[in-house]
Amino acid sequence: MKILVTGGLGYIGSHVVVDLIQDKHEVAIIDNLSNSNVSVLDRIESLTGVKPTFDKIDLKHKNEVKDFFKQHYDIEGIIHFAALKSVSESVSKPIKYYQNNVIGTINLLEFMPKGIPLIFSSSCTVYGNSKIQPITEEISFGIASSPYGHTKQICEQIIEAEYNIQPYFKGISLRYFNPIGAHPGGLIGENPKNIPENILPYLTQVVNGEREILTVFGDDYPTADGSCIRDYIHIMDLSNAHCRAINFLHETKSNKFLEAINIGTGHGVSVFNLITLFEETIGKKVRFKIGERRPGDVVIAYADTKKAKKILNWKSKYTLSDALYSAWNWEINKK
Ligand code: NAD
Ligand code: WQD
Question: Is the pLDDT of residue 111 over 90?
């Protein structure tokens, strides 16, 4: 298939592009470079021997999206990553997030060829603070703890509204839990332009001497060790889920299909567990201190993964230790 990857130069997108090329798909990338660098294209080429086409397009700009599809009318599938993802920035600049994430998705839906497979990057954040664990897809949306999370809920709902009225529509919203780690080749990984908000890039930068100390956000939660519990998934497993999803939609006989599917390991890990396992895996100490709870953090979130197994025949393969090793390998090799 010829697959359009929006946000394909970003953290998750670049890994998926590599997998798609290795799976013999032709890839076209659009990205506005707001949180990525064009040099990632060369890294993709080094890993695969193929340089995908790249157009610097901002999905917020309707005419750019329209023109793109006029020229690339032969796109056969879309994986839509392009979005802003900083939870804290979305609280201070909500309009920026609604404009970028929601308008961008609307423009894509308006001009994309109708009926082709569409994979949307959603997030476990749509569930809010769920009392039920592991979290199944049947659980209704919770109260979004940030405008960022709200944009994911809105985009899923807009996609569903399109599905309801289009005669042909094939889509999957993949709800990622906590993606971590990097490609084992050490050439692509998570390279945030600002101070990392997510725990893994912050932790590896502390161990590498780029930052002083990791703050554990709260040790008085109602969990066994008092820290929050999350479902950390290796980026290689997450990437593979996208290939399964797009191939599944391509092959399905139904004209209409739309499902939301959790992508996680199914295992909950506390912040202290994560730090200890990192120290054991890498053989280095993590300097940390206990801080206040971070506003908006949910106590526990881990995935029920049965639906991913049933529909996509996908489940995670890598261990948490593999993921931590790859994150460290990326940290010490990234340029
Ligand atoms: P990222 O910031 O590394 O990648 C996003 C890419 O999209 C960047 O290259 C950015 O330049 C591009 N982009 C943003 N707005 C754009 C626009 N208007 N037009 C064109 N390009 C645009 O983020 P990521 O971690 O790779 O996340 C990819 C997707 O997965 C996002 O939709 C994100 O919300 C979602 N997601 C991420 C996580 C996570 O923890 N990383 C978890 C759940 C869901
Ligand atoms: C993980 C755990 C923190 C940093 C976010 C988004 C979510 C999704 C994934 C996109 C939590 C603790 C963190 C630090 C810490 N993204 N922590 N010190 O918050 O689970 O999810 O990324 O959709 O929407 O909200 O991920 O990596 O920020 O935090 O103690 O410096 O690590 O409290 O328990 P989170 P995270």
Answer: yes
Residue having the nearest C-alpha atom to atom 43 of ligand 1: 123
Helices and strands counted in the chain (H then E): 12, 13
Regarding beta strands 214-217 and 288-291, do their DSSP bridges make them parallel or antiparallel, or are they unpaired? parallel
CB atoms within 10 A of CB 313: 9
- Please confirm, yes or no, whether 148 is among the known catalytic residues: yes
Average pLDDT over residues 40-45: 98
Kindly list the domain boundaries of the chain, sorted by start residue.
2-181+232-264
What is the three-class DSSP state of 298?
A: coil
**Catalytic position from the list 148, 176, 232, 302:** 148
In the prediction, which pLDDT does 259 show?
98
pLDDT tens digits along 254-269 = 999 999 999 999 999 9
- The rounded distance, in Å, linking the Cα atoms of 271 and 289 is 12
Nearest CA to ligand 1 atom 44: 123
- Its pTM surpasses 0.90: yes
Please determine, looking at this structure, whether the domain spanning 2-181+232-264 carries the CATH number 3.30.565.10.
Answer: no
